[in-house]
Structures are given as structure tokens and as C-alpha cells.
Amino acid sequence: MLVAWGDSTDEEEGSEEEEEAIAFMARSETDFDEESSDSLIRLKNKVCGLNKTKLKEFLFTLMDECDALHSENCELKDPCDELKRDIRDLEHENKILKDEKIELYMKNLVLHEDLERVKETFRLREESFVTDLTKLEKESLELKQNAESLLVENKSWQETSGS
């Protein structure tokens, strides 16, 4: 595989290109967009001129970087699992709250319907009361007139029988 990158003699010393290649390979975060793929192509071109010893060093550096990234991923696994658990718990609580909201809405709807029935009952009773009161007032007036008529008749009868 090292032959594919090019073969140089061991006597060649590090140059500016080698330093750039090391910087590229040591970088811990890379984005895999078009710019990154261009950077990787440039890196490949720069590495082609390096000797086997330098390539081995770069390979070990890259392996160390991979190990560091793997360790970091492992460290992030537990907090990630905790966050997933928290999300599940919150989703469960959210479902419970939504169910309670629906239940309260239904109870509110039933109470509103009951209130409307009670209002209608009171309205009908009030109408009945007003109708009955009007009848009673009319009967009371008739009875009062009848009583006054009877008093007048009784008075006139007493005057005729007493005289």
C-alpha cells in the first residue's frame, strides 16, 4: 500500500509539505463536504512525495487520532444514553399530561352541558312561576272583587232586614 503513495528515499528530510500533511492528519474534526474531499485529495498529493518512514509516522499518528476519537465517542455514549432515557421519560409524561388534558376537557364539556340544562330548567321554572303568579294575581283580584261585592250585598241585605 505504501508503494501506491509513492516511494522516496529515507534520506529526504521533512519539508513544509510534510508539516502540512501532519497538520491535516492530526486534525480531530473533519467535515465531509466538498471542501473536505478537496482537502483529502490535496493531502494525498502531498503525501505521495513522502518516504516510507514518514508515512509510517503519519499512519501511527492517524491511528492514535482514531483511538482518541473512539475514546471520546465511548465517553459520550453514557450521557447520550441518559439523554435518550430522559427523552423517553419526558415523552411518557407528556402523554400522561395530554391524556389528563383530554379527560379534563371531557369533564368540562359534561359540566358545561349540565350547566346549560340547569339554566334551561331555571328558565322554564321562572316562566312557569310568572305564569302562575299572573294567574294567582288575577284570581286574587277576582276574589277581592267578589268579596267586596259580597260585602256590599251583605251590607244592603242587613240594611233591608234591619229596617
Index terms:
single chain; 163 residues; mainly alpha; 0% strand; rod-shaped; disordered N terminus
Distance between the termini: 155 Å
State the major sheet. Answer: none
Number of domains: 1
Shape: rod-shaped
Q: What do these coordinates show?
A:
- With 163 residues, the chain is mainly alpha-helical.
- It is rod-shaped, with a radius of gyration of 51 Å.
- It has helices spanning 16-26, 34-47, 52-162.
- The chain has one domain.
- Helix 1 packs across helix 2 and helix 1 (16-26) packs parallel to helix 3 (52-162).
What is this entry, summarized?
Helix content is 83%, strand content 0%.
List the helices and strands and how they pair.
Elements: H1 16-26, H2 34-47, H3 52-162
